[in-house]
Design a protein that fits this description.
With about 450 residues, the chain is an alpha/beta fold. It has 16 helices and 16 strands. It has two domains: about 240 residues, Glycogen Phosphorylase B (Rossmann fold); about 210 residues, 3-Layer(aba) Sandwich (Rossmann fold), CATH 3.40.50. The mean pLDDT is about 95. Bound molecules: adenosine-5'-diphosphate-glucose.
């Protein structure tokens, strides 16, 4: 049987309870067929990746490496999060490019490739995740690795006009040709990659949709694999969480008011200032909602050392303060803005309490919060999802109220429509979305990717 080897920036060790769907999906895949998971430990050390730390649990081996502080700054905070992240999220004005950071990014990838090449067996199937590790496949091939290697991008993939702004776009993106399979969340991102590959990399695509890049050593396939959640588990967790102390406390504190909920990492791609403003607009235009609604925004700090994230935090505090200053009353705070992270199961209980899930990223690869919100609802009395058309999830969740997150008034109108929607309409929309999530859950996602990469031989 083939062995699965997963490589991602962060990994979830067996003793950690990471909330993310990705961590759970990888753990499930690795447990089913046995294998190895390699990633950064989250720690710094004198030198990057000088050794691997090993941990074994059942048939899965976890291997982690440390990064030096300068590499963390240039590779992770630098090229990955100050160059690629804003570029992939359609924010060219935030792109900060330095050749030294790019060189460091390639060097850290090469260090990872050195370790991995020594560990791999020819029959292994390697699954590389996300924008931190784009060149890893090509660096493994340079080290003689012939195993099947797939790459999945968790962010959007923007149009070529944006990509070509990156001075090193060609040398970076042509490394994708070293993979056997390149996966994206939606057909739109596949189309963007296809156009870029045809026009900028001189790729050819045959009748079966197989890509090859001139001078490339082999051909590769490109397809969409929309990531999802463990729909049944989330639904179960939400039902149980309804009786938890945290959910009950929140419910009591609402005193019968409708709850609108937003849950995001504190990131400029998530459209939080626009979301707050839309809520402020609703309150300004529709005083009948005063005292009858509460927006709870949970947004724990992420990448807090990157200046754009610090600025965003300040901006959100200002807008939240202005909304509460203008509308609050001694016994009603319209906007509760919480910077603490919550456990995944508690969040499902909060989602179930909410009348509206307000998920309005400016750009998002997929957005699993939207899917978790839907799966957490009470089928008899479901809440309404208000979803940005620029989240990958909008492709599958067309029964949500889709909004343009740049249109503050439009979002306020949709929020009002969601708050006043009749039960029959809520149920019909929820059923349609839930059907999608039951068909296309996290297991279907990883199986479809791994079957496309390795064929059905990977016993999944
Ligand atoms: P993220 O940008 O982190 O992920 P998202 O998909 O919404 O965004 O969330 C991933 C996980 O983190 C979810 O399971 C969610 O519940 C959890 N999470 C988010 N905010 C949280 C909070 N405030 N507290 C606790 N948990 C929280 C990236 C891409 C997305 C893509 C995923 C998976 O940016 O577009 O959907 O990877 O591919």
């Amino acid at each position: 049987m083939k062995r699965l080897v997963v490589v991602s920036n962060r990994i979830a060790l067996p003793n950690e309870t990471k909330p993310g769907g990705l961590a759970l999906a990888m753990q499930a895949a690795l447990r089913e067929c046995g294998g190895l998971w390699l990633g950064w430990s989250g720690q710094t050390a004198e030198r990057s990746a000088s050794e691997l730390k090993r941990m074994q649990a059942d048939s899965v081996e976890y291997l982690t490496f440390d990064l030096s502080k300068p590499d963390l700054e240039d590779y992770y905070a630098g090229f990955a999060n100050r160059t690629l992240w804003p570029l992939f999220h359609f924010r060219p004005s935030l792109v900060d490019f330095a050749r030294a950071c790019y060189a460091c990014y390639v060097r850290v990838n090469a260090l990872i490739a050195d370790h991995l090449a020594a560990l791999l067996q020819p029959d292994d199937v390697v699954w590389v995740h996300d924008y931190h590790l784009i060149p890893l496949g090509a660096l493994l091939r340079e080290r003689g690795v012939r195993a099947r290697i797939g790459f999945f991008l968790h962010t959007p993939f923007p149009p070529q006009e944006l990509l070509t702004m990156l001075p090193v776009h060609r040398e970076l993106f042509e490394t994708l040709a070293a993979y056997d399979l390149v996966g994206f969340h939606t057909p739109d991102y596949v189309r963007a990659f296809r156009d870029y590959a045809l026009n900028e990399l001189g790729a050819e695509i045959n009748e079966q949709g197989v890509f090859s890049v001139r001078g490339g050593r082999h051909s590769f396939r490109v397809a969409d694999f929309p990531i999802s959640i463990d729909t049944a588990a989330v639904a179960r967790a939400a039902e149980q969480a309804a009786n938890q102390a945290a959910t009950r406390r929140l419910q009591r504190s609402l005193e019968g008011r409708a709850l609108v909920i937003g849950v995001d990492r504190l990131d400029y791609s998530k459209g939080l200032p626009e979301r707050f403003k839309a809520y402020g607009q609703l309150l300004a235009e529709h005083p009948e909602h005063h005292r009858r609604v509460t927006l709870l925004q949970i947004a724990p700090t992420s990448r807090g050392d990157v200046p754009e994230y610090q600025q965003l935090r300040g901006e959100l505090e200002r807008i939240a303060g202005a909304i509460n200053g203008r509308f609050a009353e001694p016994d009603w705070v319209p906007l509760r803005y919480v910077n603490k992270p919550y456990h995944h199961n508690s969040l499902t209980g909060f989602y179930r309490l909410a009348r509206v899930g307000f998920v309005t990223p400016l750009r998002d690869g997929m957005n699993l919060v939207a899917k978790e919100f839907v799966a957490s609802q009470d089928p008899d009395d479901p809440g309404v999802l208000v979803l940005s058309r620029f989240a990958g999830a909008a492709h599958e969740l067309g029964a949500a109220l889709l909004v343009n997150p740049h249109d503050i008034e439009g979002m306020a109108n949709s929020l009002r429509a969601a708050l006043t929607m009749a039960l029959a309409d809520r149920r019909a929309r929820w059923r349609e979305m839930m059907d999608v999530l039951q068909r296309q859950d996290i297991t279907a996602w990883r199986r479809s990717f791994l079957n496309a990469l390795a064929g059905p031989g990977l016993a999944l």
